[in-house]
Amino acid sequence: MPHADDRTWLIDTPNTTYVLALDDDDRLHGLHWGRRLNREQAADLPGLHAPRARPVFDGLDARLDLNPAAAFRYGQTGLQVRFADGTTELELRFTGAHRDGDELALGFEDRHYPLDVRTVYRTFPDTDVIERRVVLRNRGDDPVEIVRADSATWVLPRLDDYRLSQLHGSWGAEFQLTRTRLPYGETLIGSRRGITGHQSNPWLALDDGTAGEYSGRVWSVALAWSGTWRMTAERSTDDRVSVSIGFGHDPVAFALAPGETLETPASAGLCTDGGFSAGAAAWHDYVRGHVLAHPGEVRPVLYNSWEATGFDVSAGSQMKLAERAAALGCELFVMDDGWFGARVDDRAGLGDWTPNPDRFPDGLAPLIDHVHGLGMGFGIWVEPEMVNPDSDLYRAHPDWVYHRPHRRRSETRQQLVLNFARDDVREWAHEWLDRLLRDHGVDFVKWDMNRPFTEAGWPGAEHGDRLWIEHTRGYYAVLDRLRADHPRVRIETCASGGGRADLGVLARTDQVWTSDNTDAIDRIAIQEGFAQLYPAQVMGAWVTDSPNPFTRRAAPLDLRFHIAMTGALAVGGDLRRWTERDLSRAEALVAEYKRVRETVQLGRRYPLRAGTVQGVQFNRGADTAVVAWRLERRFGYPDPLLPLHGLDHGARYRDEATGRVRHGAVLAEHGLDLGLSEADPASTVIRLRRID
Ligand code: GLA
């Protein structure tokens, strides 16, 4: 990471350079984020000294990489504080740069108030992702109120136009990828719910409006945080854009105590050529290389009992399902909600984490032994941050939930949120979870979180609003401890489906329950959005019953399997009601998935489309897997061939099922004949192997 002179820095990644420079007033500007530049070229960049068409107060903000509230900052700012005397403007003076391996830290201090600000940049040898964070330190004797402390403000180069890609959604319809022209002014995306949220995922991409799936330059940013967050994309009147991204939300503010340091979570940013699919693939490599704890491990084919038994759980019913799941080839059996306390429906028992004695008179051991005896791992559902008011836990500790004096305790799904900012609540959660894992042969935990915060107060606490950050830290701390003590156990993140999927949680969990919506056709869009950032191996995808219990839409078994095969395939249907024919076809499809699993879960992903035919291709080494489908045929028209990507044009590829040998050049230029059946919808999976 060389630097051009004392006031200009080059942040180099394998293919890109991000250039920072201080102006005469120690304001830090982002001058370049694109192809590699050397020092000499960086010194030639326009920016700091370029003549401005407009006065400084009209167009400066969207060029600042460290963007504190200050005089003439009329746009959004990434750093806002309030000192004890009410002052809100920062006047930062540069104090020095510090380089430590792949990290560069630029230090600043306020010219008058005892506040230090450090902005930190981290690079890696194998990815163009840059990670950034900000560190604040209160050196004074008075608290400093933190209004906004973003991890990064990313400065884009000037483009002719700006298009925003975002992931929005709702319960059952997470990760909807939408592209819109970026309006002038400030576009705010975020969550005020206490968790990452279904409504938006902390990722966005920007391009000039001309990028396609396989062409064009794309800038994308993400945040490694599972609590509330915000991203502001600001397009100034002079057509410059920056994106400021961080934890917290308006209007929450909290005090930084004298002597205290606040370190923000990391924001990750990436500039890629090769269109949206290349950006997504670069994110997948980064998640595997630098986020996940077990990136090389393929995820097991799991069976989850939720859609089959709901709350009607018993040792007998679970054993029966486990037997059927094992016969299909499932490798892990996950018992969902309803196994503990008085939890026979969603009205009572949440918080009382001992097996229900009527349902499990001899405890969990007989079921777990049975599952292990069938050759499967055993997984279990928990929701440690929640409590039903009708529970022994709540009766004993009504003060453990978020609440406000003189306000009702609003419930959804008859539950309240436990205050994970409290040490005693964290201890309690760790104690019973640790015991559950220690006393039983539990191999997998599905950690759920089924409602957003309301009345998020902590009466008596000195800095009540801190809970918005401390809750997430508490959740992380419990997860980190459990993982350290139980390194064998794998964890799935879930919040009513995909409400808590982000780079922060993926550093502590192994996969995501993508959506409660298991309808294969709805899943196409949900999974495509998810795949913009997260790799297939963390994308939990169950095959369930037809018609789908949520949408009532019928879909063929093959289509349900094939769509789920583009992620971490799992089964979640009521196997007790599946026909022998379906069970035997399902067994064959599970076996087929296992043949393509490494390619899908660990390979490079390419979205495919040709007219009415769509699909996803994965390449890994010599192996290619193509999963493709057609939902509606145009009568009288044959299905188009599906052109493939990332193949060696000079090589030949063998279709592993038919033995037919195809030329890479022809598959890429003309496409693959999928041989889909005539009836809609139709789907297939094709395995190809490079033979020379
Ligand atoms: C949430 C999850 C589901 C299931 C139920 C259990 O909705 O997303 O998968 O675990 O809770 O109550």
| Residue-averaged pLDDT | 96
Beta strand count: 35
Give the cofactors and ligands.
Answer: alpha-D-galactopyranose
Structural class: alpha+beta
- General shape: globular
**Residue share in helix:** 10-25%
Unreliable residue runs? none
How much of the sequence lies in strands comes to: 25-35%
Largest sheet: 10 strands, antiparallel
Secondary structure tally, helices: 14
Rg, Å, rounded = 26 Å
Kindly report how far apart the N and C termini lie. Answer: 40 Å
What's the topology here?
Elements: E1 8-12, E2 16-22, E3 28-35, H1 39-43, H2 56-59, E4 79-82, E5 92-100, E6 103-110, E7 115-124, E8 127-138, E9 144-155, E10 163-170, E11 173-181, E12 185-191, E13 200-207, E14 218-223, E15 229-235, E16 241-247, E17 254-256, E18 261-263, E19 267-272, H3 275-291, E20 302-304, H4 306-309, H5 315-328, E21 332-335, H6 365-373, E22 377-382, E23 386-387, H7 392-396, E24 416-417, H8 423-439, E25 444-447, H9 467-485, E26 490-493, H10 503-506, E27 511-513, H11 520-530, E28 539-543, H12 557-564, E29 568-571, H13 580-602, E30 604-610, E31 613-620, E32 623-630, E33 652-655, E34 661-663, H14 664-669, E35 682-690
Parallel strand pairs: 20-21, 20-29, 21-22, 22-25, 25-26, 26-27, 27-28, 28-29
Antiparallel strand pairs: 1-2, 2-3, 4-9, 5-6, 6-7, 7-8, 8-18, 8-19, 9-16, 9-17, 10-11, 10-13, 12-15, 13-14, 14-19, 15-16, 23-24, 30-31, 31-32, 32-35, 33-34, 33-35
